[in-house]
Design a protein that fits this description.
Number of domains: 1
Structural class: alpha+beta
Number of strands: 4
Shape: globular
Distance between the termini: 18 Å
Largest sheet: 4 strands, antiparallel
Radius of gyration: 21 Å
Strand order of the largest sheet: 1-2-3-4
Length: 313
């Protein structure tokens, strides 16, 4: 039975696809001013349009819109409430994690951050280039194997999400086989500039501040990080926005309110392909994984709320 006094704010189902697409939203990297998301009442009435709308939200770097398109309005309102309850019952921030975050943000937002970080990174790049050499492909192969094993063992991912993640790993590992792409000094300097710019845009010097954000405020910060991740990828020659702009979807199975779509997009000279289950609710089409994950979260919340009453003599 979950401990209601020590839970941390959950990762919402709506955030998983972009996480997979980038193989991380965790690193805070990117820029800017964001426009207010338009009001959304439900998802498109056709499954292909729904998938394209989700891709469009990611291309625009708008995780609030993405979250709203992932589940019906009533479920999204419940997600906001679940998040709020989790904030109230969350355990205190771990002091070690808080200090690590504080140090990272201080380093990234210092007045001379870019120069200081480059002074630390440059010799490491040189060492990496000299030490790895012919072993680079072996190292990439090992990392690819580790990633594939982690995806296969991940309990929170559906089969469709695992297939998508595997396709991403294959495309990225093929690209990473060229050592020069990752040890190029000019690209590393550009990446540092992105990291510094994004950390300043996030305006989160303390981890406690991040842990206090309401759901949409947290998603807005995530949007800054997502845009930064895309800028980081661009520094290494990976155009994620171009990939998202070319997302194609086709219905390969349709039965009542359930559909399966084949989704494709180009990435690093390859075609990433996976199947996406969708479900129709109140006339709109939504990702089946997001809907099911939300239902499980609501059931767990109900069970946790009923536990104290059941334990009372």
């Amino acid at each position: 039975m979950p401990n209601r006094c020590t839970r941390t704010p959950p990762t919402t189902p709506a955030t998983r696809w972009p996480l997979l697409f980038g193989l991380l939203l965790v690193v805070a990297l990117g820029s800017g001013c964001r426009r207010e998301p338009a009001a959304i009442e439900g998802a498109p009435a056709e499954p292909v349009e729904a998938v394209q709308a989700l891709a469009g939200a990611l291309r625009e770097g708008d995780l609030v819109r993405y979250a709203r398109l992932s589940v019906p309005p009533a479920m999204y309102a419940e997600q906001q409430q679940l998040w709020r309850q989790s904030l109230l019952s969350a355990a205190p921030v771990d002091p070690v994690e808080a200090e690590r975050w504080r140090g990272l943000m201080a380093a990234l937002t210092a007045p001379d951050a870019e120069a200081a970080l480059w002074a630390r990174v440059e010799p490491r790049l040189q060492d990496l280039e000299q030490q790895v050499g012919p072993s680079w492909e072996v190292a990439v192969g090992m990392m690819t194997g580790f990633a594939a094993a982690a995806i296969a063992a991940h309990p929170a991912l559906s089969e469709a999400e695992k297939a998508h993640a595997r396709s991403l790993v294959e495309a990225i590992s093929a690209w990473a086989g060229d050592q020069a792409r990752l040890t190029d000094p000019a690209r590393a300097q550009a990446a540092i500039a992105v990291a510094v710019r994004t950390a300043r845009a996030l305006q989160l010097p303390e981890l406690e501040g991040l842990r206090k954000l309401e759901l949409e405020a947290a998603l807005a910060k995530g949007s800054v990080a997502l845009e930064g991740f895309k800028a980081l990828a661009a520094a290494y020659g990976i155009d994620l926005d171009a990939a998202l702009a070319q997302v194609e979807a086709e219905v390969i199975a349709l039965e009542g309110d359930h559909a399966t779509l084949r989704v494709r997009y180009p990435l690093l000279g390859q075609v990433v392909e996976f199947e996406q289950p969708m479900v129709r609710i109140d006339g709109g089409w939504y990702r089946a994984e997001a809907v099911e994950s939300h239902r499980r979260a609501m059931a767990a919340e109900a069970a946790a709320a009923a536990a104290p009453a059941a334990a009372t003599p």
